[in-house]
């Protein structure tokens, strides 16, 4: 009524407040308004006043009729899509082509299709949309089965039908189905009219399917498994592995994402938090050496007993309705709520541990805590009747238990605390709670410890089983099954960003607050309780971002989905998994379909290169091989792809592993009868650093050559073969590795300059190279080197015309060179130059670099970085000029015009060049540049080792580095020391530094300084090599080389017979040598499992046969099957450990094989394994007369190499105790240690006397262990596929995407 009354005071007051005040404009504003009105009136008067809208003079009536929509019947009985011509025309569907399909119709006849059309459903694939049209079919039919084959699920209800993608549907059935049908071979669904017993009966889902359903319904569906297990381990309070797995087996963690026995067994993290809470004193009498009493003989009474047939056992448990309680000691820190103690109560039937913080042990506070625990038990439906507690209890507490709560009370005997079950509960709770506290953030306030108790109690009870119901957890007994989706937990005490709601923050305030996660609220849905730093108060939030100190929160992202889908796609293609069985892989369907459509519509299909026959014909290998470089996009046209770097974490998360694995290459070892020959010279054909150095450097390096031992023809032939193999590998590495994405071919320099797609960018790259070497070009080169100048032919001195050499061009894509990823390098032909002086260049080998990697992770506070000197060889003056000639057609037009080369070109089209400074390809350039660098570094305190080439140190600073050509791998303790080296180099050179140190000598490095580990890998190396050799996977292969089956019971061991297979032609021989050279570097660098098969194939490469070619193809199949190799080094005491083994008569021509495994470990009696710094797979050239002699030869080879490695470690500053060398031949160990004196030892006198001498000098400690523990056995023979599959993970780190 007040609203209708105009005299009401309240109404008038409200109306007055709603009215706007009428302000009188100022005189200035009134003048402005008048001017606006006058200008508007003037514009209206001067503009065209014609009407813009005209109305028709006559009326007209338009009639619109709606045509009936064309429908298609969704039929489960049709095995294809059939559309009537009438409906096709009405819907405007296209005609793709004539149809040849004939189908049966209901009247028993057949009908001929007319056209092929496409249905207008955008969400279906092109295959699922394809349909046939008919003239005589009145109703269009759409097949349910064909639609289901496209990854869809159709749901039929009484109101209609809906079609969904499989990943969008999760069907949960409460009861058994009432009808069951199957799908026949035509794709139609059929249900029997008579449901007989045993015919298409409903099946209960297996446990694996149930687990998949639960996982699909979880919060995180596709995170990294390893990271998720680490996260869940922290969430559960860092339990020990056995307890956690036992609880998982019991079903206590059903519904937790990715948390199952398999994943925990594989990815259980070894954390210090677990040790801080659960490490106990080692038990006594474990592996006791006391003699055991002989057990009494027992009679066999099995015949006196009846046979058990399907016995059933029962266990009866009587509910005890009993509780135990006790209090902990005083907590070191008083909480914000003044709590100092914890009351611990154990409910026997559920086996649950309940805790309650207390401020003191006074009666009032004790009774309050006790009542709180009893109330929680009563709310859970557990009403105790008896209470057992410690003897030390007050009278007030006793009266409260007996009188107020009406419980039967029992005290344990004085001094007999073990009768109180709460004592054990306190110990278990304290271990669990200490692990939780150890896992909190470094800046977590200790005074908040009592706020972590609720979730600690939850996680502890999830790890315990109920006594009354052993199939459920203690938590489930009291509170029911734990629903992780409703109440997701997080690591307690970790830092968090808490979302600030919009109505609580200012306009420009931050969207989140700093805080710590305490627990998840059990009274809300997915709400977390956090402590805010700024307000020092607790807050509930449903939006939070966890910032754990070393665990990645496994939140779902697009990259997670993509990486997981790609990994599963690879596994499905290789046959590892059933694609249709895992509904998580349906994410991949959309990805594959979209990529396939994109490729079909935009990318032209390259011509298929025919594969060679399986017989004597050899696969065609492109003349140009590719280098391990990566793809980079520059301005303009796309650059041909060479490789894609490993992403991480995913990547590579990938990659973080706790187990230290081994690996490392080394294949060629010296003759066993040269004790005085330097070991590293003998075990490597040519300098090992050449394998790690860039290709141009290996053309210059002539130090550490593999030398034949005697002048015998066989030894020279072997040395020549090894040298030829190294040269072949060198040529492959130097080839111009630019891949054309369209054709799949490798393009060389001249092809790139003429290719319409790439010529513009590579002409500029070539011009830049000429500009660097001469006096610049186009103003783009800031500091040209003036290394060479263009001259006329007659300007070459007569006495030097015989030394004129050629120039070659190397093209590569190097994404790490951000300034110029497309790099053209002009190289002098060093093989035509007769230089009279010394040309050997000291450079570090790969073994030294790997030892430096181990030293970095094993030295506290040490880190690794890399430096690269630009134009290192272009800055050193030559002692005499050199002369080259270049074809005019190979010089870019920009250089020709700027330097006016048409005036000095000779009649044959060559331009001559005089070189006055060092450049790539000149044999003397490396030594001259190195000597100049050494003089400059010596002035600042850096010096090169006199024993180990390429290893540098400083006189006083804690810094060491290896130098491979112009690449520095630097180990430093303190950034200021690395800066000192960097500034020293920058005084004379242009230096590029990489403080991450993630790539060196062609090997990718991933450093984990927290775990003190480094991971080595070479992404896409195998993929590109297989594409180069045009090899397609024939079948999955887990065995790189055929093995010789074991003949059990054989009394004699015969040598392997020579192959009688037909010999290959020169083309096939070249192909085999290229394969060996290509993958030898990978085997030496990362994947040592390749060394034994490469060694066997290379030994046959001089006279290869069709059988050798088959071995090569099997080897390539093995490479295509396996995942990319990852080698991990973990921190150690930097003590060298060696395993030595030999196989007798395992190779053709009655030869034996020696294998060795070298790794850095600890100074212990049985050194634990680590990533291999060196693996040797060497065929012993001499014929061994016995297995013992073969083992002695292997010991000799390994010990001789160990002498050199010990010298390197001494130079690195790691003093070496006697090096432990393990062998599995007791006779060889006895001969070396003087336990046995053989009578006929002329053939092995030198070897075991040399070993004895070295052992007497405390260089070695040779000992015996069983063959199962000898890791070198892997490289001594060829194993079956099962052995390779099982043992590969011991040497390489499994890859996790």
Description:
With 1297 residues, this protein is α+β, with helices and mostly antiparallel strands. It is 30% helix and 18% strand. It contains 35 helices and 42 strands. The strands form 11 sheets. It has a 6-stranded antiparallel β-sheet, sandwiched between helices. Strands 15-14-13-16-17 form a 5-stranded mixed β-sheet, sandwiched between helices. It has a 5-stranded antiparallel β-sheet with strand order 21-20-19-18-22, with no helix packed on it. A hairpin with a 4-residue loop joins strand 35 and strand 36 (1013-1017). Helix 13 packs across helix 14, helix 21 (713-734) crosses helix 29 and helix 29 runs antiparallel to helix 30.
Topology:
Elements: H1 9-18, H2 27-46, E1 73-75, E2 82-84, H3 85-91, E3 97-98, E4 102-104, E5 110-112, E6 115-118, H4 126-129, E7 130-134, E8 141-143, H5 144-148, E9 152-156, E10 161-165, E11 182-183, E12 189-190, H6 207-216, H7 225-235, H8 241-249, H9 261-267, H10 272-278, E13 322-327, E14 341-347, E15 352-358, H11 363-379, E16 386-389, H12 395-404, E17 408-411, H13 421-438, H14 453-462, H15 474-479, E18 495-499, E19 512-520, E20 528-532, E21 537-541, E22 544-547, H16 558-573, H17 586-602, H18 679-683, H19 689-692, H20 695-700, H21 713-734, H22 749-754, H23 759-773, E23 788-791, E24 805-813, E25 822-828, H24 846-858, E26 863-870, E27 877-887, H25 893-898, E28 910-917, H26 925-938, E29 942-944, E30 951-954, E31 959-964, E32 967-972, H27 975-986, E33 990-994, E34 999-1000, E35 1003-1008, E36 1013-1017, H28 1021-1028, H29 1066-1085, H30 1091-1099, H31 1106-1121, E37 1126-1130, E38 1135-1147, E39 1151-1161, E40 1172-1179, H32 1187-1211, E41 1219-1223, H33 1226-1232, H34 1245-1256, E42 1260-1264, H35 1281-1291
Parallel strand pairs: 1-8, 2-7, 13-16, 16-17, 24-27, 38-41, 41-42
Antiparallel strand pairs: 3-6, 4-5, 6-7, 9-10, 11-12, 13-14, 14-15, 18-19, 18-22, 19-20, 20-21, 23-28, 24-25, 26-32, 26-33, 27-28, 29-30, 30-31, 31-32, 34-35, 35-36, 36-37, 38-39, 39-40
Helix pairs in contact: 10-13, 13-14, 21-29, 29-30, 32-33, 32-34
């Amino acid at each position: 009524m007040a609203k209708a009354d105009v005299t009401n005071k309240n109404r008038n007051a409200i109306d007055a407040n709603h009215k706007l005040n009428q302000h009188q404009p100022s005189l200035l504003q009134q003048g402005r308004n008048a001017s606006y009105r006058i200008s508007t009136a003037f514009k209206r008067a001067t503009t065209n006043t014609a009407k813009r809208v005209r109305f028709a003079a006559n009326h007209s009536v338009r009639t619109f009729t709606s045509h009936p929509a064309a429908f298609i019947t969704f039929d489960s009985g049709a095995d294809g899509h059939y559309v009537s011509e009438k409906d096709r025309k009405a819907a405007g569907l296209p005609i793709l082509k004539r149809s040849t399909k004939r189908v049966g119709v209901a009247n028993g006849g057949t009908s001929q299709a007319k056209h092929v059309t496409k249905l207008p459903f955008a969400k279906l694939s092109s295959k699922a949309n394809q349909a046939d049209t008919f003239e005589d079919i009145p109703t269009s039919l759409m097949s349910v089965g064909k639609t289901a084959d496209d990854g869809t699920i159709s749901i039929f209800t009484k109101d209609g039908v809906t079609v969904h993608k499989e990943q969008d549907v999760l069907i949960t059935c409460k009861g058994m189905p009432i009808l069951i049908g199957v799908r026949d071979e035509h794709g139609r669904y059929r249900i029997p009219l008579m449901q007989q017993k045993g015919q298409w009966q409903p099946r209960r889902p297996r446990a694996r399917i149930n687990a998949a359903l639960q996982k699909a319904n979880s919060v995180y569906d596709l995170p990294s498994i390893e990271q998720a297990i680490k996260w869940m381990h922290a969430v559960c309070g860092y339990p020990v592995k056995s307890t956690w797995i036992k609880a998982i087996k019991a079903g206590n963690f059903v519904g937790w994402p990715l948390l199952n026995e398999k994943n925990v067994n594989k990815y259980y993290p070894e954390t210090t938090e677990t040790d801080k809470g659960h490490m106990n004193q080692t038990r006594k009498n474990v592996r006791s050496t006391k003699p055991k009493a002989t057990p009494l003989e027992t009679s066999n009474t099995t015949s006196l007993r009846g046979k058990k047939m399907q016995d059933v056992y029962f266990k009866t448990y009587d509910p005890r309705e009993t509780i135990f309680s006790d209090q902990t000691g005083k907590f070191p820190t008083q909480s914000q709520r003044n709590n100092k103690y914890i009351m611990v109560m154990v409910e026997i039937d559920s086996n649950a541990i309940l805790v309650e913080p207390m401020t003191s042990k006074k009666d009032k506070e004790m009774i309050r805590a006790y009542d709180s625990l009893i109330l929680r038990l009563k709310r859970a439906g557990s009403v105790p009747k008896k209470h057992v507690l410690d003897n030390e209890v007050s009278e007030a507490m006793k009266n409260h238990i007996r009188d107020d709560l009406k419980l039967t009370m029992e005290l344990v005997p004085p001094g007999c605390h073990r009768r109180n079950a709460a004592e054990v509960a306190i110990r278990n709770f304290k271990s669990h709670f200490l692990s939780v506290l150890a896992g909190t953030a470094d800046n977590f306030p200790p005074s908040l410890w009592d706020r972590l108790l609720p979730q600690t109690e939850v996680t502890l009870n999830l790890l315990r089983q109920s006594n009354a119901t052993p199939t459920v957890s203690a938590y489930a007994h009291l509170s029911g099954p734990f629903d992780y989706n409703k109440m997701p937990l997080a690591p307690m005490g970790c830092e968090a960003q808490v979302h600030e709601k919009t109505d609580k923050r200012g306009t420009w305030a931050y969207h989140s607050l700093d805080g710590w996660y305490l627990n998840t609220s059990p009274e809300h849905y997915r709400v977390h309780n956090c402590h805010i730093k700024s307000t020092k108060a607790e807050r509930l939030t449903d939006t939070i971002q966890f910032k754990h100190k070393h665990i990645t929160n496994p939140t779902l992202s697009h990259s997670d989905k993509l990486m997981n889908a790609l990994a599963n796609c690879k596994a499905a293609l290789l046959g590892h998994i059933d694609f249709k069985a895992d509904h998580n892989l349906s994410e991949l369907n959309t990805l594959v379909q979209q990529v396939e459509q994109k490729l079909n519509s935009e990318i032209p299909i390259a011509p298929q290169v025919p594969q060679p026959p399986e017989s004597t014909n050899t696969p065609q290998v492109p003349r140009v091989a590719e280098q391990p470089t990566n793809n980079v996009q520059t301005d303009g046209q796309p650059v041909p792809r060479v490789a894609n770097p490993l992403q991480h974490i995913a990547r590579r998360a990938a990659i973080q592993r706790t187990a230290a694995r081994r690996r490392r290459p080394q294949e060629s070892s010296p003759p066993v009868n040269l004790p005085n020959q330097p070991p590293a010279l003998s075990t490597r054909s040519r300098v090992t650093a050449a394998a790690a150095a860039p290709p141009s450097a290996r053309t210059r390096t002539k130090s550490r050559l593999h030398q034949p031992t005697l002048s015998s023809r066989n030894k020279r032939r072997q040395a020549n073969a090894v040298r030829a193999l190294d040269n072949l590998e060198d040529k492959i590495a130097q080839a111009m590795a630019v891949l054309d994405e369209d054709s799949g071919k490798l393009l060389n320099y001249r092809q790139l300059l003429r290719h319409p797609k790439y010529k513009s960018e590579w002409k500029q790259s070539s011009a830049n190279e000429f500009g660097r070497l001469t006096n610049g070009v186009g103003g783009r080169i800031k500091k040209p080197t003036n290394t060479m100048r263009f001259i006329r032919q007659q300007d070459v001195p007569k006495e030097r015309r015989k030394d004129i050499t050629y120039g070659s061009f190397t093209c590569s894509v190097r994404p790490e060179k951000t300034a110029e990823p497309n790099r053209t390098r002009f190289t002098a032909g060093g093989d035509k130059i007769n230089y009279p002086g010394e040309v050997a260049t000291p450079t570090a080998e790969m073994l030294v670099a790997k030892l430096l990697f181990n030293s970095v992770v094993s030295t506290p506070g040490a880190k690794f970085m890399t430096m690269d000197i630009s134009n290192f060889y272009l800055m050193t003056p030559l002692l005499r000029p050199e002369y080259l000639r270049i074809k005019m057609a190979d010089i870019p037009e920009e250089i020709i015009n700027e330097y006016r080369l048409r005036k000095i070109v000779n009649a044959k089209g060559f331009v001559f060049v005089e070189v006055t400074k060092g450049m790539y390809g000149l044999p003397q350039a490396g030594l001259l540049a190195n000597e100049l660098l050494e003089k400059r570094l010596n002035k600042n305190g850096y010096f090169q080792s006199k024993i180990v080439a390429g290893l540098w140190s400083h006189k006083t600073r804690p810094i060491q580095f290896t130098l491979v050509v112009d690449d520095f791998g630097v180990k430093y303790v303190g950034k200021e020391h690395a800066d000192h080296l960097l500034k020293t180099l920058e005084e004379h050179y242009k230096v590029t530094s990489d403080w991450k140190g993630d790539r060196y000598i062609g090997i990718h490095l991933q450093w984990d300084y927290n775990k003190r580990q480094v991971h080595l890998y070479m992404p896409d190396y195998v993929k590109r090599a297989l594409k180069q050799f045009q090899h397609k996977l024939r079948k999955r292969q887990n065995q790189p080389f055929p093995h010789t089956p074991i003949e059990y019971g054989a009394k004699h061991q015969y040598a392997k017979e020579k192959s009688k297979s037909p010999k290959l032609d020169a083309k096939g021989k070249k192909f085999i040598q290229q394969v060996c050279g290509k993958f030898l570097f990978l085997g030496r660098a990362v994947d040592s499992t390749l060394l034994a098969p490469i060694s066997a194939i290379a030994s046959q490469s001089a006279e290869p046969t069709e059988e050798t070619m088959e071995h090569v193809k099997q080897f390539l199949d093995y490479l295509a099957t396996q995942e990319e190799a990852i080698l991990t080094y973990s921190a150690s005491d930097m003590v060298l450990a060696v395993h030595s083994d030999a196989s007798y008569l395992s190779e053709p021509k009655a030869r034996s094989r020696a294998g060795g495994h070298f790794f850095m470990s600890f100074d212990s009696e049985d050194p634990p394994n680590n990533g291999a710094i060196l693996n040797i797979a060497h065929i012993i050239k001499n014929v061994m007369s016995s297995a013992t002699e073969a083992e002695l030869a292997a010991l000799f080879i390994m010990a001789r190499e160990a002498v050199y490695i010990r010298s390197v470690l001494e130079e690195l500053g790691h003093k070496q105790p006697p090096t432990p060398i393990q062998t599995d031949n007791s006779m060889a160990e006895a001969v070396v240690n003087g336990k046995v004196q053989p009578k006929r030892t002329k053939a092995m006198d030198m070897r075991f006397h040399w070993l004895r001498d070295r052992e007497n000098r405390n260089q070695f400690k040779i000992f015996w262990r069983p063959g199962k523990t000898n890791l070198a056995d892997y490289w001594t023979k060829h194993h079956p596929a099962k052995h390779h599959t099982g043992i590969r993970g011991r040497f390489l780190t499994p890859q996790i995407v």
